Amino acid sequence: EKGGYDYFMLKEIAEQPKAVADTLLGRIDSGGSLTLDEVRIPDSVLREVDKVVVVACGTAFHAGMIAKLAIEHWTRIPCETELASEFRYRDPILDSRTLVIAISQSGETMDTLMALRHAREQGAKVLAICNTNGSTISRESDAVLYTHAGPEVAVASTKAFLTQLVACYLVALYLAQVRGSKWGDEVRGVVRELSAISGEVERVLETMEPVRELARSLAGKNTVLFLGRHVGYPVALEGALKLKELAYMHAEGFAAGELKHGPIALIEDDLPVVVVVPSPRGRSVLHDKIMSNMQEIRARGARTIVIAEEGDEAVVPYADHLIRIPATPTLLQPLVSTVPLQVFACELATARGNEVDQPRNLAKSVTVE
Ligand code: M6R
Fold first, then answer.
1. Which of 35, 200, 242, 360 is exposed most, by the fewest CB atoms within 10 A?
2. Contact, 54 vs 82, CB < 8 A?
3. Whole-number Å distance between alpha carbons of 33 and 304
4. What are the C-alpha distances in Å from 107 to residues 41, 112, 141, 253, 366?
């Protein structure tokens, strides 16, 4: 049932291009329009939405952080993303014009379920992004946009994450379509590129051998840091989470701009630091900023592992190790930049002799609060 792979996680990493394509299937027509028929919230209601709140846990929360950036940029609707376990305990302000998006692979995560119940009690509409048909979260929501990742067995979430991202982009683009977007041309371009993105994920998978080699060489390390900005920040958090849960290593993700406010004190000789570099096209100011972050940490001895777009030559002098990913629109980059981090964590776990599919102390779905 592992399809010739040693671990479910490896199989699920390899299934990502198909999972992404399946989640897009039938949702974008040949003219570039989105049809999300299953989202039974009428367009008239979506036009009135004045706030979006995304709630989720763990990896799904990282997808939600990226959803916030996409929703606010393309639709200009204020959006906040919050850990489901924190959400209802702060007495959040919600009403019938609030759209709550609950993201959950299993559809059984108790923290997320309690958050969505609280939101509905306050009159908010809840849209679930869920991978499991008939799960509690999908049954209790006003509407569901299913991710079509297929069953995910490994405790560490991989293909579910990529499909959650796709679903978040679809919701953001759909809201932009229904309400109009000041970035009309950009939105059309993104829809086109999103339709073709599974081929890019496939290309990343074909180039992972050096990442595996690098991971094996770091098996004796105690700490790995991850830095990113904008969409690269949740990707950094996701890379660190994967490493914690699989390799049982101290791993932390930071917004690169925060370094100088404290974490830079952690940098010491030969410390591996993974840097997720934004596209030099698009928001190039972000690119410039992360270049100076890399300079700062290298000056203090860090060993940089740089994930950067093909053709981004400016990063070469700052990279001790360079992992190339295909060029994508800025907001879509997590679909390709996360993949090397999954492979990295899986290989490090193997090298350290850990149980990859069933890490210690963890359950696949967390059904207690
Ligand atoms: O089933 P869910 O998506 O609601 O699960 C949420 C988290 O428990 C889950 O993503 C967890 O963080 C994974 N083990 C991460 O790999």
1. 360
2. yes
3. 41
4. 19, 8, 10, 26, 10
Q: What is the ipTM of this complex?
A: 0.98
58 close to ligand 1 (CB < 6 Angstrom) = yes
Beta-bridge partner residues of 15: none
DSSP tag of 306: E
The alpha carbon dihedral of 49, 172, 21, 55 has a sign of negative
C-alpha to C-alpha distance for 274 and 132, rounded to whole angstroms? 33
The Cα–Cα gap between 54 and 67 comes to 8
Could you please report the per-residue DSSP string of 27-79? TB-TTS-B--TT--S-HHHHHH--EEEEEE-HHHHHHHHHHHHHHHHHH---E
Report pLDDT digits (tens) over 150-181.
999 999 999 999 999 999 999 999 999 999 88
Cα–Cα nearest to 342, from 61, 13, 5, 17:
13
Q: Note the pLDDT tens digit of each residue in 233-277.
A: 999 999 999 999 999 999 999 999 999 999 999 999 999 999 999
CA of 368 to the centre of ligand 1 (A): 13
Distance 109 CA to ligand 1 centre (A): 8
Q: For residue 307, what are its two tokens?
A: 């994930």
11 is known as an active-site residue: no
- 26 exposure class (CB count in 10 Å sphere: 0-12, 13-18, 19+): exposed
2 residue type, one letter: K
Q: Where are the beta strands (DSSP E) in the chain?
A: 51-56, 79-83, 98-104, 125-130, 143-146, 223-228, 250-255, 272-276, 303-309, 321-325
Q: What Rg do the C-alpha atoms of the chain give, in angstroms?
A: 20
Could you tell me the distance, in angstroms and rounded to a whole number, from the CA of residue 364 to the centre of ligand 1? Answer: 7
- Cβ proximity of 216 and 315 under 8 Å: no
What does the alpha-carbon distance between residue 339 and residue 10 come to, in Å, rounded to a whole number? 11
Q: How far apart are CA 120 and CA 99, in angstroms?
A: 10
Taking the CA of residue 366 as reference, the ligand 1 atom at the shortest distance is: 8
- Partners of 144 in the β-ladder: 128
Q: Is 60 in the pocket of ligand 1 (CB under 6 A)?
A: yes
